[in-house]
From TrEMBL:
Keyword Transcription regulation: no
Species of the source: Handelsmanbacteria sp. (strain RIFCSPLOWO2_12_FULL_64_10)
Lineage per the UniProt record: Bacteria, Candidatus Handelsmaniibacteriota
Pfam families assigned: CAP
Superkingdom of this protein's organism: Bacteria
InterPro entries the UniProt entry points to: CAP_dom, CAP_sf
Coiled coil: none
Chain segments annotated as transmembrane: none
Domain SCP: 34-155
Keywords for this protein: Signal
Signal peptide, first to last residue: 1-23
Record protein name field: SCP domain-containing protein
Gene3D superfamilies: CAP
Length: 260
């Protein structure tokens, strides 16, 4: 089943049944799926997806959860869908999100990987995620329960990853300095950073007669492939939302932090 969101979006679920499993090397299945995905993209002259350790972690977590609790859905038993899991486990990871899931059984790693890929490619929604010209990164996670192999693909156009943790307490009026690693496959000058304030009437002037209301752009301070963002937390007490994207657009699923 796919989920895509550009922002984020889901698609139908796939069930593929076969003969019982012997113990598989799930890491090899993951690698073969990644190879097969990029082979399909190469046939259509699309650039290969970049392997993302963070997306792999999200994908493995969901596949293992499905195998352990014997469910099959984009939404886990805690009620979290793919964007909610990203917010929980990687709140500082910026980028759109898409997800494919499926389960299958087979005799070998190669058989399982090829059958999963065949089923995804035969489904328009899953195929769209695999052949997207919007996503740039992928993570594949596979788990088994002794009878079935559960597979998750996470797709994204990743922008940046927060380095370090947010302060536990952020007082009103403080300047918050956050450092990020740039992950985008686009030029740095296209990066867009916008902070949204709890005071929706707050104004940020960009010239004498031009201003933003309720949000404002921020300029990154670059240091190689890292950059720092400084947020002055004086536009109300409550939740601030730091968002990123490119060319003036941004994913609303940003980094939220509370100012007291």
């Amino acid at each position: 089943m796919p989920f895509i969101r550009r922002t984020s979006t889901f698609f139908p679920i796939l069930l593929i049944l076969s003969s019982p499993l012997h113990a598989l090397d799930t890491g090899q299945v993951e690698k073969r799926i990644l190879d097969l995905v990029n082979a399909e993209r190469a046939r259509r002259k699309l650039p290969p997806y970049t392997h993302s350790p963070e997306l792999v972690s999200l994908a493995r977590r969901h596949s293992r959860n499905m195998a352990r609790h014997r469910f099959f859905s984009h939404t886990d038993p805690e009620g979290k869908d793919a964007p909610a899991r990203k917010r929980t486990y990687f709140p500082g990871l910026f980028g759109s999100l898409g997800e494919n899931i499926a389960y299958h059984s087979g005799h070998t790693e190669e058989e399982v990987a090829r059958n999963l890929m065949r089923s995804w490619m035969d489904s328009p929604g899953h195929r769209a995620n695999i052949l997207s010209d919007q996503f740039t990164h992928i993570g594949v996670g596979v788990a088994e329960d002794g009878k079935q192999v559960y597979a998750t693909q996470e797709f994204s156009e990743l922008v940046a990853l927060l380095e370090g943790d947010l302060p536990r307490r952020i007082p009103f009026g403080a300047e918050l300095s956050l450092r990020f690693r740039f992950l985008g496959r686009f030029s740095k000058r296209r990066l867009t950073v916008v902070v949204h304030f709890p005071d929706r009437s707050a104004k940020v002037f960009v010239s004498k007669d031009r201003y933003y209301t309720g949000a404002g752009p921020l300029d990154p301070i670059w240091d190689g492939d890292r950059f720092t963002i400084k947020v002055l937390c004086n536009k109300g007490r409550g939740v601030y939302n730091l968002t990123m994207g490119k060319d003036g657009s941004f994913d609303p699923e940003g980094l939220r932090f509370e100012v007291r």
